[in-house]
TrEMBL record:
InterPro entries per record: LysR_HTH_N, LysR_subst-bd, WH-like_DNA-bd_sf, WH_DNA-bd_sf
Biological classification of the source: Bacteria, Bacillati, Actinomycetota, Actinomycetes, Streptosporangiales
PANTHER family: HCA OPERON TRANSCRIPTIONAL ACTIVATOR HCAR (PTHR30346:SF0), TRANSCRIPTIONAL DUAL REGULATOR HCAR-RELATED (PTHR30346)
Organism: Actinomadura algeriensis
Regions annotated as coiled coil: none
Protein's name in the database: DNA-binding transcriptional LysR family regulator
């Protein structure tokens, strides 16, 4: 039996559906059927009992599945180890994130990455809004998942992997907090806090506008350095800050409220990496995360 035939048999044994098996393996259902019939002819007995509605393994099929699975897994692991070594997918991959939901996605990807590339360790760390691209530029990170847009010399913006509805974080006693939703025009009624340090002006123009769509000025609140300051300053009634609406599930903080926007664009999060000096392990992680989120990885 050829390796591909074994793979088709094992996937069908898991899915028990010719269509789903074909979809997983990117082949046609007729190809699946042809391979299974060929294997059954070689063995001399049916491996699957088929009706118009169901597919199930015969006892012989179950024993063959149980015997083949461990060997198939060992072969896959051996090939992946060889590929990882050939491509240099070893060592430590350092990945930054800007929000807890980005961290959750990276942790999920890390588990799959470690299963595929056992010789590579992934280290994940938070980046701060006051210096959102500094660690990547200084070589402290290989990749990061953070807010877009990004137009930085020496940094490549890869695929957008998250797109989140936008909300405004406001003091719980602010009039906006009593509303079910708000518009961009309402920003004229509350001071927006801003990150200090090296937060790019082009990002501020997108996320922290100075005027509403009709041209009304949006007041400015305190300048902050770390995210924890935002929560404290908002709770103290000193300003507001635009965030992902998903933040309601992450920040249980007294004195704050999240008000969804009706008309604001979503907050998009994308992968970033150094334009020069990126590593095979970083690009392998980009590909895996793109597969995980159903996005298309950008060209290296």
């Amino acid at each position: 039996m050829e390796f591909r035939d074994i793979e088709i048999f094992l996937v069908l044994a898991e899915e028990l559906h010719f269509g789903r098996t074909a979809e997983r393996l990117h082949i046609t259902p007729s190809r699946v059927s042809h391979v299974i019939k060929k294997i059954e002819r070689r063995i001399g007995a049916p491996l699957f009992a088929r009706t118009s509605r169901t597919v199930r393994l015969t006892p012989l099929g179950e024993r063959l599945r149980d015997d083949l699975l461990p060997a198939h897994l060992r072969i896959q692991q051996a090939v992946e180890r060889a590929v990882a070594e050939a491509r240099g997918i070893t060592g430590t991959l350092r990945v930054g994130y800007s929000t807890p939901w980005c961290a959750d996605l990276l942790l999920e990807a890390t588990q799959k990455f470690r299963a595929r590339y056992a010789e590579c360790t992934v280290h994940i760390q938070e980046i701060q809004l006051n210096d959102p691209h500094g660690p990547l530029r200084r070589g402290e990170l290989d990749l990061q998942l953070s807010e877009l847009p990004v137009a930085e010399s020496g940094i490549t913006a890869g695929p957008t992997v998250l797109s989140e509805p936008r909300a405004l974080l406001v003091p719980a006693d602010h009039p906006l907090a009593q509303r079910e939703n708000m518009s961009m025009e309402d920003l004229a009624d509350v001071p927006l806090m801003t990150p200090g340090g090296n937060f790019p002006q082009y990002m501020a123009a997108v996320h922290l506008p100075t005027h509403t769509p009709s041209g009304r000025a949006i007041p400015r609140g305190p300048v902050f350095t770390y995210w924890a300051e935002v929560l404290s300053l908002v709770a103290a009634g000193l300003g507001a800050f635009p965030v992902s609406a998903r933040g309601t599930r992450y920040y249980a903080w007294p004195g704050i409220a999240f008000v969804p926007f009706l008309d604001a664009p979503p907050i998009e999060y994308g992968l970033l990496w150094p334009t020069t000096g990126h590593t095979p392990r970083a690009m392998a992680f980009v590909d895996l995360l793109a597969d995980l989120t159903g996005t298309t990885p950008a060209d290296e």
